[in-house]
């Protein structure tokens, strides 16, 4: 939380103090890919590169995590960005007839 306060003295001797305000950071959300038995591994790597700006090596690591553990984290974003990425990935997967699931959950 960020707090700011300023004090101003007037000529008549009175003192004015600005009200303290707090600004909270927006909650963050994790974007996760979920494993399925039909989406090709190469397609998952392409998705990670295209929508999460990963190099091929990092995308392959995440794809293997999805394959072995059932899910893999693609990144942590604000709610609007996370939601947009989920929609983009799901839409892209459907356009290519793949059932790849992408979800978001609040980062704790």
List keywords for this structure.
108 residues, alpha+beta, 3-stranded antiparallel sheet, two-stranded antiparallel sheet
Task: Note down, in words, how this protein is organized.
This protein is of the alpha+beta class and 108 residues long. It has three helices and seven strands. It has a three-stranded antiparallel β-sheet with strand order 6-5-7. A two-stranded antiparallel sheet has the order 1-4. A hairpin with a 5-residue loop joins strand 2 (7-9) and strand 3 (15-17). The mean pLDDT is 90.
Element layout with pairings:
Layout: E1 2-4, E2 7-9, E3 15-17, E4 21-23, E5 28-34, H1 41-52, H2 56-69, E6 71-78, H3 79-95, E7 101-106
Antiparallel strand pairs: 1-4, 2-3, 5-6, 5-7
Helix pairs in contact: 1-2
What's a concise summary of this model?
The protein has 108 residues and is α+β, with helices and mostly antiparallel strands. It has helices spanning 41-52, 56-69, 79-95; strands at 2-4, 7-9, 15-17, 21-23, 28-34, 71-78, 101-106. Helix 1 crosses helix 2.
Instruction: List segments where confidence is low: pLDDT < 50 over at least 5 consecutive residues.
Output: none
What Rg is obtained from the alpha carbons, in whole angstroms?
22 Å
Overall average pLDDT? 90
Shape: rod-shaped
Alpha-beta classification: alpha+beta
Helix and strand pattern: EEEEEHHEHE
What proportion of the residues is helical, as a percent range?
Answer: 25-40%
Tally of separate helices: 3
Output the strand order for the largest sheet: 6-5-7
Number of extended strands: 7
Major sheet, described briefly? 3 strands, antiparallel
How much of the residues is beta strand, in percent? Answer: 25-35%
Distance between the termini: 17 Å
């Amino acid at each position: 939380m960020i707090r700011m306060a300023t004090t101003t003295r007037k000529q008549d001797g009175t003192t004015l103090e600005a009200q303290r305000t707090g600004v909270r950071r927006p909650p963050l959300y994790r974007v996760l890919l979920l494993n399925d038995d039909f989406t090709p591994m190469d397609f998952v790597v392409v998705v990670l590169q295209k929508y999460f700006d990963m190099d091929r090596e990092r995308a392959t690591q995440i794809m293997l995590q999805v394959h072995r553990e059932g899910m893999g984290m693609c990144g942590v974003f604000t709610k609007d960005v996370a939601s947009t990425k989920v929609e983009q990935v799901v839409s892209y997967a459907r356009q290519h007839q793949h059932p790849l699931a992408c979800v978001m959950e609040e980062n704790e």
